Amino acid sequence: MWSPHGYLRINDPAMPQDAPIHMVDLKGQYAHIQKDIDQAVLDVIRSGAFIQGPAVKGFTKALSDWLGSTEADPVHVVPCANGTDALQAALMALGLQPGDEVITPSFTYIATVEVIQLLRLTPVMVDVDPRTFTMDPMAVEAAITPHTKAILPVHLYGQCADMTALNRLAADHGLFVIEDTAQAIGSTWKMEAGDSEGMMAGTMGTIGTTSFFPSKNLGAYGDGGACFTRDAALAERLRMICNHGSRQRYEHEMIGMNSRLDSIQAAILGVKLPQLHGYNAARRDAADRYDALFKEEALVETPFRHLRSHHVFHQYTLVLGSVGDGAERRDAVAAHLTQLGIPFGIYYPKPIHSQGAFMGLGLAKPDLPVTEDLTRRVISLPMHTELSDAHTLKVAKAVREALLS
């Protein structure tokens, strides 16, 4: 719901002081749009078009338009079953071969690296920028070899990676760029410092991917995902891959998979998409309030906002303490928040290159000091569209109490 001041939180400012704090408040968000959601779901059920129905086609077109598609420069959207499938489909569409190297961060959710290994490609994990938490272009450049075929940046926590530098590296070395936009739909990046507007996350590389997991900024009420590309031929390959390698029934031109966005989920997303700018604005407002509350706290590093990126705050992530004592600080804060019943997240407590799934595969263990440090010191606070002033105050107070004890 929009007002002249942005998104209206349904329970603010009259929310009871003892109202529970949620890490993500999907019920509160649903209360704004209940009538439209219920009608959209009912329309799909009554239509009987549960697979590849009008709801999917309508949402696909609406999302393409929302991402800035024009007749002269179209953004093709290919929906699929989830964000992990979107990453897999993107890699498959590029025709990469076993052993080809894909450079990606280790400071991410496992899906990003899992699909690389699943396709028998070689993940090359690099360090991240300590301010933005996104992959460091200098680390990427140092990791490029004759076997490198693609760069897979993750737009982490709601902020874009440095797509100017990454696209330049890709152009110089003839590489593909696959953007993992699962946490940053609606974020933008200004390709040049003087640009008045940025390009949408997921539309700057060869292929962009996203997830519609319920907790995402644009979340379904179940699983869902999509790929984006400006290349019509790649879009056709992606559609085929997500449909058993077929564009005509019972004619299979390539090996694909079964990955479709459910019609009911598409209908829900179609209702929520027009609200997305408002949802992101509400998250930025909550982040502003957190920033102000932690402004004088020396032991707290609040999220850095790159001047070229429009941060949409999928997560509000603090870095606590300093190198050497950060883990103890984080443990103290986590324990105190748990005692008070305040939710939090640690994204991520263990880097991908140290996960058991990647042991014994013959991969060189990289030296990633920033990643290792962040896994010991980061903590994410409640962040969603319904977060009240009272809630941000209570959360910040609890964090400060733990750091002073």
Describe the structure.
It is a single chain. This protein folds into two domains: 37-126 and 133-273, Type I PLP-dependent aspartate aminotransferase-like (Major domain) (Aspartate Aminotransferase, domain 2, 3-Layer(aba) Sandwich); 276-404, Aspartate Aminotransferase, domain 1 (Alpha-Beta Complex). The strands form five sheets. Strands 3-11-10-7-6-4-5 form a seven-stranded mixed beta sheet, with helices on both faces. A three-stranded antiparallel beta sheet has the order 9-8-15, with no helix packed on it. A three-stranded antiparallel beta sheet has the order 14-16-17. The radius of gyration is 21 Å and the shape is globular. It has helices at residues 26-47, 54-66, 83-93, 110-118, 137-143, 163-173, 232-241, 263-272, 276-293, 326-340, 369-377, 389-404, and strands at residues 2-3, 6-7, 76-80, 101-105, 122-126, 148-151, 176-180, 188-189, 199-200, 207-211, 225-229, 246-248, 251-252, 300-301, 309-310, 316-320, 378-381. The longest helix is centred in the N-terminal third of the chain and has 22 residues, at 26-47. Helix content is 37%, strand content 15%. The relative contact order is 0.17. It contains twelve helices and 17 strands. α3 (83-93) crosses α4. β12 (246-248) and β13 (251-252) form a beta hairpin. By secondary structure, it is an alpha/beta fold.
